[in-house]
Specification:
globular
Length: 86
């Protein structure tokens, strides 16, 4: 896909997908990172879109999975500690 076509897709979907990313991150900067990582995945996996559902739904699922991956990676950085109540 050429650069101009990619820009068109990003411009068309970015506001909707940013809202999705923000729902999963609650932080503006993290949502921007997720959006960027998500679009990289969308364009690298474009040939995997099988046209069974909507393209927007497929993009949304990639954004959600990207957000969940980011969340899981942060869990490993900050392990939960057990608090003892005495």
């Amino acid at each position: 896909m050429k650069g101009e076509a990619r820009r068109s897709y990003i411009n068309f979907f970015s506001s909707r997908m940013f809202g999705v990313c923000l729902q999963y991150s609650n932080q503006y900067d993290d949502a921007k990172d997720i959006l960027q990582e998500g679009f990289i995945k969308v364009f690298s996996k474009l040939e995997q879109f099988d046209h069974r559902g909507s393209f927007e739904g497929w993009v949304r699922r990639i954004m959600i999975n990207t957000a969940l991956e980011k969340y899981r990676s942060h869990l490993h950085l900050y392990p939960l500690t057990e608090k003892r109540c005495e």
